[in-house]
Design goal:
Immunoglobulin-like; 8-stranded parallel β-barrel; 6-stranded antiparallel beta sheet; 14 helices
Amino acid sequence: MTPALDDGYDEDDSGDGARPALQAGLPWPIGASWDGEGVNFAVFSAHAEAIELCVFDDQGQQEIVRMRLPACTRDVWHGYLPGAAPGLVYGLRAYGPWRIEDGQRFNPHKLLLDPYARDIVGRYEWRDEHFGGDRDHPQIMDTRDNAASALKARVVHDSFDWAEDRPPRVPLVDSVIYELHVRGFSRLNPRIPEALRGSFAGLAHPASIAHLRRLGVTAVSLLPVHFHVDEERLSEMGLSNYWGYNTLGFFSVHADFASTESGLTPRDEFRSMVKALHANGIEVLLDVVYNHTAESDEAGPTLSFRGLDNASYYRLRADSRSHYENHTGTGNAIDMRQPHVQQLVLDSLRYWVEEMHVDGFRFDLAPVLGRGENGFERNGPFFTSIAQDPVLSRVKMIAEPWDIGPGGYQVGNFPRGWLEWNDHFRDATRSFWLKAASTRGDLALRLCGSSDLFHTRRREPVESVNYVVSHDGFTLRDLVSYNDRHNEANGENNRDGHGNNMSNNCGVEGPSNDPAVMALRGRYQRALLATTLLAQGTPMLAAGDELGHTQNGNNNPYCQDNEITWIDWSQADDDLIDFCAWLLSLRRQALPFDNHWYSGLTDPLGLHDLTWFQPDGSLLQGNAWRDSSSRAFGCLIGQPRRAGAPLLLLVNGDVIDRPFMLPAGVWEALLDSHEPSGVASFHGQGEVPYPLMAHSVVLLAAAGHVIKL
């Protein structure tokens, strides 16, 4: 049964007289906006018959008044409340048909969160009254009112002193991305005051920034910081969605990441963090989840979008509109074919750039955003809108280029200018070093920008995001230490996460105090890091990999907000940190592989731009590229633009040392990954063998052009 609609003009129960009448207001901007004299409310719903504004006390506990939004303009319901001011707490109720078979799930008994909420009041608890349908009989509307425990929005009007803050605007060719979790990065750092650890303020602390600067990274990519809720299953097990890929509020920071020690709102603590990072030349990128929402599948709760206009916000199955197209694996998928849904995403992105000063975004399951009527559309409306937007076209855009729907694997197929996570680089690099399966040709292709994926569509090499480890999977240390996952703590009997790892060739599973095993694992780590940080493209490090962080073999710790995922700074490997810092210094100064596609042709000085050698000095060509009997090779970079003199990259993926005949000239070793710090001491004449150790990467420069740290 649908309750009678409150017209908003009766007397309330408080004895204070008539309720304030809502004026028509404006259909823009969508959300709640204060103009100094009152608040305008606007909310999209193409199928609602009416929308109510419900005002609550400051704590969001007691509903004070309900008022019908008096006007609707092109599917945007709106009203203006004179005298209302920032701080007002409100929710929404939507009236319309309850016809699940047609995709309509309106239930005015459920208080709904404004999708444009900047500040969210309350903490979500799993209760049956938050579900639009009866949990035992989902076709039947649940008529319990959930207002007392529902999430609400608070009207805000911020004024933050950005002073001289300026975006660093680091060129892509110089960019190095460092992926981190706000809580996990600083939660155990003893150099940070305990009250600030695990927060935006903890990331902004001088100790955190000093580490980032020591490394030489240019951007932090933050795992989701939008307001999210924990899945019911995790809550029942006493776990949480630590990674945060379960967004409900696209305009609101997750308040649990704020320390509040300084008295700042979570929004302003975030802004202060951005300001501090910018002052040190470090960009801030956000991992954003616009592909689905926390309302899950047809059995999920009614919290916001589902109750406002289920058939507009979500992709529904053509053969059964009571069910969702699950291209995300999370139960639902946002429908970017709807203009107002696309507007929601674009408005959110602009908010984070203009009002929060972020420098770019990494889009989770990005093909969902480009899905039209017939699958992924590289030139679809969403990408076209960003390309012409005066704000969004100027920031970094990074795609996770796959989802689980039909045709969902789209690596290399995003628009020009977009960066993409390159799993071809990840898989070939891991296979070459750890499984002895990839050939020299496989690795060389990835070292040179993955031209098979990007060059054919006039993409630039920097658009390949090169990585071997991300938040999703083993840490670097665990990658070389475990053959199998150990996800028992996740409560799924070790069935979740990725399958078995490739052989790590170390002979021992898990932790080891054997010096030989530890040394071998160290060489593997350094070889993988050197390959990633010297390759052509945009490199990405996962936080903690530079200091030996372990998750004890858990390769899917999405629900572990504890010591499994928090970086243990007390166990940091300083030699490995120094190695990474030296590598990145070499990249900045020499940039072995520049941001242009190599042709193999000679330049006016008679040097090939790239010449590939075997250890005996002979050219690497023909079937030798695919010969798996040896995985040692060299690359002479004839005229690197930044170094200004020839560079020589040597790679030995074999289990034995390989003396490598150097080309003519005098050579100075800049890097030898066999050494724990990476610093090499070789200086010698060419046409003699270089002692190229097993499992190592070496970079040499022509003498007279030696690069110093």
